[in-house]
Design a protein that fits this description.
Helix content: over 70%
Shape: globular
CATH class: Mainly Alpha
Distance between the termini: 41 Å
Number of strands: 2
CATH architecture: Orthogonal Bundle
Order of helices and strands: HHHHHHEEHHHHHHH
Structural class: mainly alpha
Number of domains: 1
Number of helices: 13
Largest sheet: 2 strands, antiparallel
Amino acid sequence: MTESKTGTVIVWMKSAGGITVTLSILIAIIAGIDSGPYIIVNTIVTGGMLALVALGLALIFGVMNIPMFAHGEFFMIGSLTAYYIFTPLAEYLNTSPNSLLAATAPLIAILGAMIVGAVAGLLCELLIFSQLRKRSRENWVMNSFLLTVGLSVVLINAHQLLFGTEFKGIVRYWGGRPTEIMGAFVSRDRILVFVLAMVVVGVFWLFMKYTSTGRAIRAVSQDQTGALMVGININGILLLTMALGCALSAIAGAGLLFLYPSYPAVGLEPLYLAWFVVILVGLGNTAFALVGGFIVALIKALTVEYIGAGWDFVIPSLLITVVLVFKPSGLFGSEVRGVLDL
């Protein structure tokens, strides 16, 4: 490591973000020793999928400057889609066993959820946000916020009217005996879903950093006028951004179907937790969404373990309030500008 890189690492470790990450790791280790390794396992599994929801939320806010308070409903769309794809496949496998289909059926369900989530995001951009953008850019954040709240209500009630209010879930995606990790028995679902989350995050990072489309998205997030001057199709980028953000949330909903059965309001908890992550790392900061997902998941797990399940949103909310008061830009110092940051 060169001297400049060493200096950068030292500066980061002394920053609020570096201190927070270090303390989180130490606390997780201590909690794992005190209460059992399942706390660490739960944090890793839920944190990975929570990072996907937060990543989509941060992407939409960072590029489009839309505070997406309907983002949890795309989690719901993902879980509902996965349920209706996977359930008939599972029923077929009960009568006609097929090892290849049994291994790939969950991936088919999650892929289907991703496609439906992306299409739903495209429709939202075309029918709602692009129409608002054409007519008025004044008070954009407040107007788009109100639209997302209304969209949330519409989608929740549509789920209730079309699919009912009963819980639609599954016992597991993949069969087989649990794997022992650090003394805790972990189901294949939890392991494979975590691997899936990391693969998606990795692909997203490569796409954003090394493809021309990813660079175009980053350019639009920094300067819409400048991006337009160099020939970037702004409307196309906004469509793609909304589709990507909603698809990430749908993947999380589908991946966690065995933990979060689909019902009209299933997206509320992931939405709140994702906003905790986005505020913690800095509005629009996609780079640290993964880290923030694990930190918020750890806070929630520790709250349930040591204080009680009824406090699982109270304590994170208090911590986020402290962050907003003392470091409004987030622990990792986001300087991201939105497209319509007026």
